[in-house]
Structure to design on (281 residues):
């Protein structure tokens, strides 16, 4: 039977325009015991003045861990999204995020293929992704961190494409972060059938619900979205999601991806109600 841990993607404070430390402390106050931070390279003005939640990888990773430890939460994974078809950017960013995650005690780094440039044909794109993931897999194996491919781009929003990307660099450390909201919005395949086809590789999930209004506006037109609504208040049938995952005999992190503090609070209450003792706290 699948078991779950709830974590909170730090995108939830975008609307609040607050910094990383504030977001971690608020997550703990809401009852979360894990967070999924977003990281960037270089220095960002908004993050430096605590108007944005992203954490610079120029900082000591143990500073991130220290902030979380003081609040009583842990880093479950890192949002290290890197354009796999752009190895000059993705290789240094993704490998650095893996090392950063390991230093914080995190188990996952999430990434995706992103959008194929117009000048690049499909064969070229797959070659570039294979190179990027081969380099990333070597680092992931050393540090024992899962690199998780998320449906969020040109090829990843079908089960076939998602698995094909994950298999480009055969490694037990390359797996799937299934984003329910992105898969729903892309509308290239039934959400629950797609999840069933990839479930054996799912070790992490972006638990993202999509409101009816959002779905009507963008479904079939996009391959993803930053955040959704509170869980249980949108188009995703969570009973069916958990029914698909039920046979898996392992823990899966559910990273809530919503856009506001109140939505994060309601999402955790929803998971507690639906999952009961299957939610490990």
């Amino acid at each position: 039977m699948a078991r779950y841990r709830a974590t909170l993607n730090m995108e939830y404070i975008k609307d609040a325009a607050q910094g990383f430390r504030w977001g971690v402390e608020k997550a703990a106050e809401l009852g979360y015991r894990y967070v999924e931070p977003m990281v960037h390279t270089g220095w960002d003005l908004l993050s430096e003045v605590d108007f944005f939640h992203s954490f610079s990888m120029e900082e000591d990773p143990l500073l991130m861990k220290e902030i979380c430890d003081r609040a009583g939460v842990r880093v479950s994974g890192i949002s290290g999204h890197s354009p796999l078809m752009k190895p000059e950017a993705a290789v240094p960013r993704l490998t650095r995020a893996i090392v950063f995650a390991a230093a914080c005690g995190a188990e996952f780094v999430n990434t995706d293929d992103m959008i194929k440039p117009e000048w690049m044909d499909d064969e070229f794109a797959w070659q570039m992704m294979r190179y990027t993931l081969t380099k990333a897999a070597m680092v992931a194996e050393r540090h024992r961190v899962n690199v998780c491919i998320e449906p969020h781009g040109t090829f990843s929003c079908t089960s076939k494409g998602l698995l094909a990307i994950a298999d480009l660099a055969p490694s037990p450390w390359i797996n799937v972060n299934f984003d329910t909201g992105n898969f729903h919005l892309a509308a290239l395949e039934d959400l629950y059938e797609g999840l069933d086809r990839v479930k054996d590789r799912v070790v992490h999930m972006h638990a993202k619900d999509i409101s009816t209004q959002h779905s009507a506006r963008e479904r079939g037109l996009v391959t993803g979205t930053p955040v959704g609504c509170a869980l249980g208040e949108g188009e995703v049938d969570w009973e069916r999601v958990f029914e698909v995952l039920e046979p898996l005999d392992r823990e899966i992190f559910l990273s809530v991806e919503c856009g506001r503090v109140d939505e994060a609070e309601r999402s955790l209450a929803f998971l507690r109600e639906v999952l009961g003792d299957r939610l490990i706290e």
Q: What stands out?
A: The first helix runs from residue 20 to 30.
